[in-house]
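Appendix C reproduces, verbatim, an entry submitted by the partner laboratory led by Prof. M.T., so that reviewers can inspect both the input and the predicted structure.
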Amino acid sequence: MFSIRLLLQELRARRRLLITWSIIWSLLLVFFTSVFNSFSKDAAQNAQLFEQLPKGFFDALNINPSLYLSQIEQFISGQFLFVYLLAGCIFAFSMGVGAIGKRVDNRTIALLLTSPLSRGKIYMTQLVANLLFFVVSGTLLCVVSLLAMNNLLSHQEVVSMAYFVCLFAGSSLLFSTFSALGQLIGLLTNGEHATQIGAGIVVVSWFTTSLGNLVNIPAVLQHLSLFQYFDTTLLRDNFTLSTSGSIVLFSVIIALAVAGTIAFRRKNIYL
């Protein structure tokens, strides 16, 4: 289905990006942990201020206001997770666009098309390389988060390992889905505009899932959002991932991979 030799080459090409991505989010995790320490000292006083905010605000950020400043998992869900998901999905979509679409636009795809590999193997190898990128980065961030929390948190906070394992496993799956979507759209449209399309899809999807019930968006439209299948409520409350949601995302990745492979085989490319 894919070329191991080409896969290793693509992974080496992404290693600097992997290091940069992991360092940025590791530093943000440390920052949010330090902020939690300062906020949690005045949790009771700040909780009174939170009670004056509308319920829809907490629903959008998917946090429990009564535990937000007293439980690190709640704080991470409301701060880090919110930023991480939006930025990560846009980044993942952009990586998908760059895997094939941008190479077609700038003609560097010739280096791959002149190799003895079939188009199907080329397409699948690029997709697998991006998926492994998010699996490795998610694993690194999970380890860093546990180390950071256990060493920086005050007040003898107990950190749930299950929470962070589920957080980064689930987000890596969501990012992989957006990456596969970006690879297909980048192939079918102009690479320069595909990332903008992706940003729009991410924002609309997040809005639909987070505020859909508040603004009466039909349930059918809510189920079209990929965020719908990364259940942050289950993640936050029970420290587990939604099995059915994960199956849906896996199925979407497979469907996108098949559609992209067929489209790449049929696409006329002028070198």
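The chain is about 75% helix and 0% strand. Additional entries are available on request from the coordinating office.
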